[in-house]
């Protein structure tokens, strides 16, 4: 894209696409120089190329781009500097004071043409039919340097020196020619077009941190190669993040979607709908067709990077399985009947009201979605509280991060992560506990790995040897492979070492925390029974490693803790969160860049769903329903009386359903049957209800028990906002009309109005205005504000008009930070003779949660089934070999899947994912839960593993039942 | 004891187990506060019913908390 810029007068606009050629430098010293007669001042260390670009003067370039360090190989960017001989490369030459640079002289013109001529002589001239036509830097540069003819030609009859012709004039094959690599489902590698600029290799190293690519050979023979020789992109270590494709200046690495459709003609900035990193993307469109999604360089969460899910796995939006018309049925044994929106909504509203008439106001409820927007979530809880007239609202965030809310709320006074993602750039020691960011939060993992390669130290606390423990150029200083369920013991032992060795930050604690509470806490953790040695038997963690880790964290500089579901999904989830808060306060690691307590949220809008009042006891902004003043604010605006007692949480709703006092449920964008623990209990609860309304893209597993199906819309089809794990509110923008006819918020409004609400929203911005008007932490947020800033981190209000990248800077939200005693309590879920192994669960990179979306994309090439990881020792005593079908049984149920033998897991521990419905790992998980929040204990289940022949009886039955309940009547004529 | 009640007993005891480890003499009040803040009324009613039926399996701290909760609000 060519900006219209007057050099020296006008900088690049705030969100310009301009490629500055080399990365930004930070320095408090500035250097002033002259380029083509214009004076410019830039931070010390800046390259001439970047300085020139800040003036709006672009210097021709091929091998440089501004998200990686310069390489200096193409020589196209040569400039002349007065008083210096030669023509230095502007990308690798830093500015010096008083320098006088010329970017365009007769000498440079000639030189650049010569360089381009050489490149083009070894490049096919099929621009007109090339997929990158119009979007190719080689083409642009040929234009920019005024290349008019190419004097070199392949010699006739053999001995030819090029890489792109398949055969020479005599028909003999060209040994230098290599075929296209089509193995990756989303992009191709065509070696014939490669100019060996090495941008892809550097992107894979510097941006993604995977080191899958290398340049093999030297000089004319050099080639980009994925993995070892003989590997393809698919068989290599490549994780398909797309960074190399983004970096490639030619069509060598090219999205298959662009090859299929053509180049896009417009871009819309939006936010990924997969994980809690919340990457900003440009949806590149042609008409209403998405051509590709590319990470947006100004996105503050991702800084121009992406992972395979957001970058490539959006095809589910147009998948044939999507249900686009509403359906109803009398009973769940009937087939579905396609009906009009009117009929479906009336049917649903009538049934819900009828249930309330017969069983009371509190007999129905709803579940908000962490996949939907803030505005949609807000409306669902509003409908439940104001229209249903009760507080029976919950969200699937219950099953992942509710302990974060409770634990951090008690310790600091606010239930959110304390930092922004940029903070990791200032970290010296990182603890990653119960999280597997390279799979779960890939873009954050890339940013973390970058910092680790710069020298920061890493401590991993996880039962499994996750990829972070050892990967190319990253190695954890300490890995504490604890037994599942012993987080509290380990965290308390870390505190024991810090306290008994006097490594705590007394000044910080005296200034910021409650000193009496600290003293009590210190006394508690100092007891011998919390020493690393005392807990070693219980946790399986080497006491010396634990001691060393504690010392490193306390004394290693800025210390940051990142944690995930491996912390929260335990019967002591909330206690561990408080233990983590204690560690941060003990070591003074709060309130500045590089430190803090950082929950890595699972789904894209878990943070937002919690903020928006999805929980049965809390109105938006984490205010308890019993607070009269808060209720009044909403009662006045909503014109309804609100219940002052907390409502039912998801597991309680299901219990009440089985018991017979809960009969109707509206579920927006969640699949509780697959995602919630103890599947049999969930299905019993759902089956006992009289009206289950499922609003989703697909007939999900929960829909097998539904009476009304309302088609949902994808993030590409609606406006709204998502709030990511760093509290950043990002815009979601509609790029195409909803294929089902309505955005999800409109569907909720239809249902609410059919039940008498009388709402008149015409755009989600009005909902955001209502949120801002009622919720102090959002007071300054509006769509205009977001348009201007791109994004903002709450709290955003009068006190923090620019938002809050880092929390608790001058003091905790609640005043003084609280040290809370964290006694280890063993879970009731124990191994014994019948169930001697501990099962823990997780996720993998290419699939997302229950997989409803990713399973409907080509991501299945990386993960077509769930497998059970088992240690060689445990496998051997059971006679299990790699790839065998095994039966996995717990006291809750059993399922079958294939075994993967690996020492990533310790003896006594097995591990699986839950992405595929036919595996149904949650048939195995029990109904034990966190003591404070009922967040289910996914991460610990006592199990037995034995050889078997194939799927279990239950799986076969289930598949049959599912098929039965998905029948749709052919449309009536 | 029915499965539902058993579950409530376990949940209540879990809460009590945490607060029992906390310093000071407010444990019963904390447990009561937690129950009030997070439990839906029909769950509380069921818990009270179980207490009346003898409170089998409930920890003493839960019993004390329930006693506080059932005192008519001052
Ligand atoms: S897609 Fe990502 S991981 Fe794969 S080679 Fe390219 S940069 Fe490396
Ligand atoms: S594949 Fe693209 S980025 Fe990589 S060296 Fe070749 S031209 Fe450069
Ligand atoms: S899934 Fe997460 S890391 Fe990947 S692109 Fe989306 S938001 Fe970013
Ligand atoms: S852009 Fe500077 S050497 Fe290639």
Automatic annotation (TrEMBL), chain A:
<dbReference type="Pfam" id="PF10588">
    <property type="entry name" value="NADH-G_4Fe-4S_3"/>
</dbReference>
<dbReference type="GO" id="GO:0008863">
    <property type="term" value="F:formate dehydrogenase (NAD+) activity"/>
</dbReference>
<dbReference type="Pfam" id="PF04879">
    <property type="entry name" value="Molybdop_Fe4S4"/>
</dbReference>
<dbReference type="InterPro" id="IPR017896">
    <property type="entry name" value="4Fe4S_Fe-S-bd"/>
</dbReference>
<dbReference type="InterPro" id="IPR050123">
    <property type="entry name" value="Prok_molybdopt-oxidoreductase"/>
</dbReference>
<dbReference type="InterPro" id="IPR006656">
    <property type="entry name" value="Mopterin_OxRdtase"/>
</dbReference>
<keyword id="KW-0001">2Fe-2S</keyword>
<dbReference type="InterPro" id="IPR006478">
    <property type="entry name" value="Formate_DH_asu"/>
</dbReference>
<dbReference type="GO" id="GO:0003954">
    <property type="term" value="F:NADH dehydrogenase activity"/>
</dbReference>
<feature type="domain" description="2Fe-2S ferredoxin-type">
    <location>
        <begin position="29"/>
        <end position="107"/>
    </location>
</feature>
<keyword id="KW-0479">Metal-binding</keyword>
<feature type="domain" description="4Fe-4S Mo/W bis-MGD-type">
    <location>
        <begin position="265"/>
        <end position="321"/>
    </location>
</feature>
<dbReference type="GO" id="GO:0022904">
    <property type="term" value="P:respiratory electron transport chain"/>
</dbReference>
<keyword id="KW-0677">Repeat</keyword>
<dbReference type="Pfam" id="PF01568">
    <property type="entry name" value="Molydop_binding"/>
</dbReference>
<keyword id="KW-0004">4Fe-4S</keyword>
<protein>
    <submittedName>
        <fullName>Formate dehydrogenase subunit alpha</fullName>
    </submittedName>
</protein>
<dbReference type="GO" id="GO:0043546">
    <property type="term" value="F:molybdopterin cofactor binding"/>
</dbReference>
<dbReference type="InterPro" id="IPR006963">
    <property type="entry name" value="Mopterin_OxRdtase_4Fe-4S_dom"/>
</dbReference>
<dbReference type="GO" id="GO:0051539">
    <property type="term" value="F:4 iron, 4 sulfur cluster binding"/>
</dbReference>
<dbReference type="GO" id="GO:0051537">
    <property type="term" value="F:2 iron, 2 sulfur cluster binding"/>
</dbReference>
<dbReference type="InterPro" id="IPR001041">
    <property type="entry name" value="2Fe-2S_ferredoxin-type"/>
</dbReference>
<comment type="similarity">
    <text>Belongs to the complex I 75 kDa subunit family.</text>
</comment>
<keyword id="KW-0408">Iron</keyword>
<feature type="domain" description="4Fe-4S His(Cys)3-ligated-type">
    <location>
        <begin position="107"/>
        <end position="146"/>
    </location>
</feature>
<dbReference type="InterPro" id="IPR006657">
    <property type="entry name" value="MoPterin_dinucl-bd_dom"/>
</dbReference>
<dbReference type="Pfam" id="PF13510">
    <property type="entry name" value="Fer2_4"/>
</dbReference>
<keyword id="KW-0560">Oxidoreductase</keyword>
<keyword id="KW-0411">Iron-sulfur</keyword>
<dbReference type="InterPro" id="IPR017900">
    <property type="entry name" value="4Fe4S_Fe_S_CS"/>
</dbReference>
<dbReference type="GO" id="GO:1990204">
    <property type="term" value="C:oxidoreductase complex"/>
</dbReference>
<dbReference type="GO" id="GO:0046872">
    <property type="term" value="F:metal ion binding"/>
</dbReference>
<feature type="domain" description="4Fe-4S ferredoxin-type">
    <location>
        <begin position="230"/>
        <end position="258"/>
    </location>
</feature>
<comment type="similarity">
    <text>In the C-terminal section; belongs to the prokaryotic molybdopterin-containing oxidoreductase family.</text>
</comment>
<dbReference type="Pfam" id="PF00384">
    <property type="entry name" value="Molybdopterin"/>
</dbReference>
<dbReference type="InterPro" id="IPR036010">
    <property type="entry name" value="2Fe-2S_ferredoxin-like_sf"/>
</dbReference>
<dbReference type="GO" id="GO:0015942">
    <property type="term" value="P:formate metabolic process"/>
</dbReference>
<dbReference type="InterPro" id="IPR041924">
    <property type="entry name" value="Formate_Dh-H_N"/>
</dbReference>
<dbReference type="InterPro" id="IPR019574">
    <property type="entry name" value="NADH_UbQ_OxRdtase_Gsu_4Fe4S-bd"/>
</dbReference>
<dbReference type="GO" id="GO:0016020">
    <property type="term" value="C:membrane"/>
</dbReference>
<feature type="domain" description="4Fe-4S ferredoxin-type">
    <location>
        <begin position="185"/>
        <end position="216"/>
    </location>
</feature>
<dbReference type="InterPro" id="IPR009010">
    <property type="entry name" value="Asp_de-COase-like_dom_sf"/>
</dbReference>
């Amino acid at each position: 894209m060519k900006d219209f810029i007057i050099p020296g007068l006008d900088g690049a606009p705030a969100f310009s696409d301009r490629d500055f050629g080399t990365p930004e430098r930070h320095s408090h010293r500035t250097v002033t120089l002259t380029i083509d007669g214009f004076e410019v001042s830039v931070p010390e260390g800046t390259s001439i190329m970047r300085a020139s670009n800040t003036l709006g003067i672009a210097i021709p370039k091929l091998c440089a781009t501004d998200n990686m360090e310069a390489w200096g190989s193409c020589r196209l960017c040569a400039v002349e500097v007065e008083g210096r001989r030669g023509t230095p490369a502007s990308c690798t030459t830093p500015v010096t004071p008083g320098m006088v640079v010329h970017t365009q002289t007769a000498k440079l013109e000639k030189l650049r043409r010569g360089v381009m001529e050489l490149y083009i002589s070894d490049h096919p001239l099929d621009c007109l039919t090339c997929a990158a036509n119009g979007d190719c830097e080689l083409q642009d540069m040929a234009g920019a340097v005024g290349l008019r003819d190419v004097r070199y030609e392949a010699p006739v009859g053999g001995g030819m020196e090029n890489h792109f012709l398949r055969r020479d004039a005599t028909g003999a094959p060209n040994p230098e020619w290599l075929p296209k690599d089509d193995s990756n489902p989303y992009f191709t590698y065509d070696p014939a077009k490669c100019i060996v600029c090495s941008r892809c290799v550097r992107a894979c190293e510097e941006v993604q941190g995977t080191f899958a690519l290398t340049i093999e050979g030297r000089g004319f023979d050099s080639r980009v190669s994925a993995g070892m020789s003989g590997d393809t992109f698919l068989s290599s270590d490549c994780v398909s993040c797309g960074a190399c494709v983004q970096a490639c200046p030619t069509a060598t690495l090219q999205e298959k979607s662009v090859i299929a459709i053509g180049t896009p003609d417009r871009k819309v900035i939006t936010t990924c709908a997969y994980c809690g990193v919340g990457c900003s993307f440009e949806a590149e469109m042609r008409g209403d067709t998405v051509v590709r999604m590319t990470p947006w360089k100004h996105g503050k969460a991702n800084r121009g990077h992406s992972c395979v899910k957001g970058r490539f796995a959006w095809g589910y939006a147009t998948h044939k399985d999507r249900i686009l018309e509403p359906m109803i049925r009398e009973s769940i044994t009937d087939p579905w009947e396609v009906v009009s929106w009117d009929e479906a909504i009336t049917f649903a509203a009538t049934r819900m009201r009828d249930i309330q008439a017969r069983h009371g106001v509190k007999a129905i409820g709803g579940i908000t979605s962490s996949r939907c927007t803030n505005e949609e979530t807000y409306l669902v809880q509003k409908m439940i509280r104001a229209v249903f007239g009760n507080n029976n609202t919950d969200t699937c965030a219950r099953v992942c991060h509710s302990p974060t809310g409770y634990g951090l709320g008690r310790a600091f006074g606010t239930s959110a992560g304390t930092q922004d993602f940029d903070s990791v750039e200032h970290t010296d020691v990182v603890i990653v506990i119960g999280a597997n960011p390279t799979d779960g939060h890939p873009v954050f993992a890339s940013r973390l790995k970058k910092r680790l390669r710069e020298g920061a130290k890493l401590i991993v606390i996880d039962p499994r040897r996750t990829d972070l423990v050892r990967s190319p150029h990253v190695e954890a200083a300490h890995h504490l492979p604890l037994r599942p369920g012993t987080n509290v013991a380990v965290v308390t032992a870390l505190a024991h070492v810090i306290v008994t060795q006097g490594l705590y930050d007394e000044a910080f604690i005296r200034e910021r925390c409650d000193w009496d509470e600290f003293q009590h806490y210190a006394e508690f953790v100092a007891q011998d029974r919390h020493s690393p040695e005392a807990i070693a038997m219980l946790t399986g963690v080497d006491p010396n490693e634990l001691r060393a880790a504690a010392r490193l964290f306390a004394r290693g500089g800025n210390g940051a803790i990142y944690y995930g579901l491996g912390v929260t999904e335990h019967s002591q989830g909330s206690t561990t969160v408080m233990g983590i808060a204690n560690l941060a306060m003990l070591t003074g690691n709060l309130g500045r860049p590089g430190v803090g307590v950082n929950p890595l949220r699972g789904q894209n809008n878990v943070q937002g769903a919690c903020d928006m009042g999805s929980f049965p006891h809390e109105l938006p902004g984490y205010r308890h329903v019993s607070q009269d003043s808060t209720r009044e604010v909403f009662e006045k605006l909503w014109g309804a009386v609100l219940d002052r007692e907390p409502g039912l949480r998801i597991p309680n709703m299901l219990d009440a359903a089985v018991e017979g006092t809960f009969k109707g449920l509206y579920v927006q964008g969640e699949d509780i049957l697959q995602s919630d623990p103890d599947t049999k209990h969930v299905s019993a609860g759902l089956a006992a209800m009289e009206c289950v309304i499922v609003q989703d893209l697909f007939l999900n597993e929960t829909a097998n028990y539904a009476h009304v199906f309302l088609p949902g819309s994808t993030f590409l089809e609606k406006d709204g906002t998502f709030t990511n794990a760093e509290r950043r509110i990002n815009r979601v923008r509609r790029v195409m009309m909803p294929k089902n006819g309505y955005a999800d918020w409109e569907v909720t409004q239809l249902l609410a109005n059919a039940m008498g609400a009388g709402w008149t929203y015409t755009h989600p911005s009005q909902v955001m205005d209502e949120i801002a008007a009622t919720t102090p932490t959002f007071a300054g947020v509006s769509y205009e504000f977001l348009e201007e800033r791109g994004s903002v981190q709450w709290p955003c209000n009068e006190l923090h008009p620019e938002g809050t990248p880092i929390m608790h800077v001058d003091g905790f939200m609640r005043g003084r930070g609280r040290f809370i005693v964290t006694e280890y309590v063993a879970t009731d879920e124990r191994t014994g003779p019948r169930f001697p192994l501990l099962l823990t669960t997780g996720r993998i990179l290419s699939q997302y949660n229950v997989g409803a979306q990713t399973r409907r994309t080509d991501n299945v090439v990386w993960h077509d089934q769930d497998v059970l990881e088992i240690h060689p020792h445990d496998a051997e005593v059971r006679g299990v070999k790699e790839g065998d079908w095994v039966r996995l049984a717990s006291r809750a149920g059993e399922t079958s899947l294939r075994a993967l033998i690996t020492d990533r897991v310790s003896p006594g521990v097995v591990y699986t994912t839950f992405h595929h419905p036919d595996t149904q790992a949650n048939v195995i998980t029990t109904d034990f839960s966190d003591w404070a929040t009922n967040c289910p204990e996914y991460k610990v289940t006592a199990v037995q593993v034995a050889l078997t022949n194939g799927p279990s009886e239950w799986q076969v039955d289930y598949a049959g039942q599912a098929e039965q309940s998905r029948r749709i009547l052919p449309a009536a004529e | 004891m029915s499965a539902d009640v058993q579950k409530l007993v376990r949940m209540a005891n879990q809460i009590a187990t945490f607060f029992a480890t906390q310093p000071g003499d407010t444990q019963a009040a904390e447990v009561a506060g937690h129950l009030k803040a997070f439990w839906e009324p029909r769950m509380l009613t069921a818990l009270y019913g179980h207490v009346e039926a003898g409170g089998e399996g409930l920890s003493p701290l839960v019993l004390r908390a329930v006693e506080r909760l059932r005192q008519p609000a001052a």
